[in-house]
Amino acid sequence: MIRFLIRLGIFLASAAIGLLIAKAVLDDMSITWTSFIWVVIIFAVLQAVLAPFFTRTANRNAPALLGGVGLITTFIALLITDLVTDGLTIDGAATWLWATLIVWIVTMLASLLLPIILVKMGVEEARERRN
């Protein structure tokens, strides 16, 4: 259960970081602070549901698409989040493209780096407690 909660926290944090960086970089993308948490939760849940579905579908029907599944699911999760909430707004085709790329890259990097950072912090804290 603790591992699940840690993974969930890392997944939500990586989605939040990806969305915040895209928002900071792109002028035509906005996220209202009052609905930020809902935007992150909806986006992360959509990513978690869509990724396995598209991976299985691509694997069975179009294996060449497997490399692009992350980009496809990021775009679709952004699109649905934009449609179902008032908190996320993305205007213009170029902004949609850049938002998809930025959120995908940053979320991927954050998902890889956050566990390393957390483990390092935990090890350092354990060392301090022993001393």
Describe the fold and architecture.
With 131 residues, the chain is mainly alpha-helical. It has one domain. It has helices spanning 2-25, 36-61, 69-84, 93-130, and strands at residues 29-31, 88-90. Helix 1 packs across helix 4 (93-130), helix 2 (36-61) packs antiparallel against helix 3 (69-84) and helix 3 (69-84) packs across helix 4. Helix content is 79%, strand content 5%. The model has no long low-confidence stretch (mean pLDDT 90). The longest helix is centred in the last third of the chain and has 38 residues, at 93-130.
Q: What does the average pLDDT come to?
A: 90
| N-to-C span | 30 Å
What profile does the largest beta sheet have? Answer: 2 strands, antiparallel
Compute the number of helices: 4
| Helix content class | over 70%
| Tally of strands | 2
How large, in whole angstroms, is the Cα Rg?
Answer: 17 Å
> Going across the major beta sheet, what is the strand order?
1-2
What sort of overall outline do the alpha carbons produce when their principal axes are compared?
Answer: globular
N-to-C SSE string, H for helix and E for strand: HEHHEH
Low-confidence stretches: none
Report the sheet-strand fraction. Answer: under 5%
Backbone structural class: mainly alpha
How many domains would you count in the coordinates?
1
